[in-house]
């Protein structure tokens, strides 16, 4: 029995099955609100673990499962209610997580929130139900494994040489660690969706899919996420590599060893390769997933102009990149402050301040909310059930026992005549009872 042979309608038990499988898939991938384990693990977990699990392996498992259940098990159509639910989860994950990344002061934790945010593009793409959107979401999953591994390994290279990933203690490493800086820069541009890297292609496909659904709000959310992703990596790159030398950076810092730097450069090269020659991975990795889905594959053309790197969208991307870099470096030269301090201003903005307060209170953490719910329910059980039982045992039962004991004590007064009367009375009662038992 193959997965494609199973077909369920998302109604009744089928709907419940889809919801449970969807929760498992997006929870595995780390989409909101099942994301908090990724930032929590970023501080203490080794960089190699972060590069393998949340950056690549978990995304491959979760998003691939989500794609298969939407395409094979349940055949979720575009513009359906379940499609809108998936796109909403994806859009919220993109925007909320990228705003959390903006205010982080630790290199690895910033990357961890971007690992969450990028899941939103994958869920959004798959949720569109549009062939180009689904293909874009799956392609973004593959691309994410490349550039996010490269970014985490870059953070590991910095931590290996400096001993910390706190942005306030870093800076000026572009000269002492040029290869790490180069690999980081390429991967950062790729995750930001900058032409001609692989992230540009997969994000553009997701944008196209979102627009074709007829709900432009989801495409706008994806664009906002891309803009602020680039902004947060401007902050990270400036604070680690291009800013002023930090207090933890010594004068004799050297580049990391070749076994550390080489994987970063290989992953950066793959980001460029999968961007320029994007049709190869799309045709050999993505298109086979659509076999047996004529209603999807007939609308999927990997040779269309939409995937051509030399198009107006690419020109706009380059123009925005140059403009953003010019504004950034002009502001840096003029103000002379470290770039990450701007996150304090963002933290205090009226709308975002509430978001950050909720996040700091772990409002978006389902596990934490579940613990709080159980604590609340336990208090109700304590007041409604436990305390009445204690009262019944400690007050009613104790009082009844004491009263019964006092009555029985009067019967035992030391007079043998009374004891003999009790014995005769008991014997008469037994005789009377045995009359009915024959």
Number of helices: 17
Number of strands: 0
Main sheet characteristics? none
Mean pLDDT: 79
Number of domains: 2
What class would the helix/strand composition place it in?
mainly alpha
- Unreliable spans: none
* Coarse shape: elongated
Radius of gyration: 32 Å
Helix-strand pattern: HHHHHHHHHHHHHHHHH
What's a quick, concise take on this entry?
This protein has 438 residues and is mostly helical. The protein is 73% helix and 0% strand.
Summarize the structure in words.
The chain is mainly α. It has two domains: 3-364, no CATH class; 370-434. The chain is built from 17 helices and no strands. Helix 3 (47-73) runs antiparallel to helix 6 (131-162), helix 4 (81-102) packs parallel to helix 9 and helix 8 packs across helix 10. It is elongated and about 115 Å long. The model has no long low-confidence stretch (mean pLDDT 79).
Helices and strands in order, then pairings?
Blueprint: H1 13-29, H2 37-44, H3 47-73, H4 81-102, H5 107-127, H6 131-162, H7 178-191, H8 198-212, H9 216-242, H10 258-276, H11 279-286, H12 294-297, H13 312-335, H14 342-347, H15 350-360, H16 366-411, H17 416-434
Helix pairs in contact: 1-3, 2-5, 3-5, 3-6, 4-5, 4-9, 5-6, 5-8, 5-9, 6-7, 6-8, 6-10, 7-9, 7-10, 8-9, 8-10
Question: Any key phrases for this structure?
Answer:
17 helices; 438 residues; mainly alpha; single chain
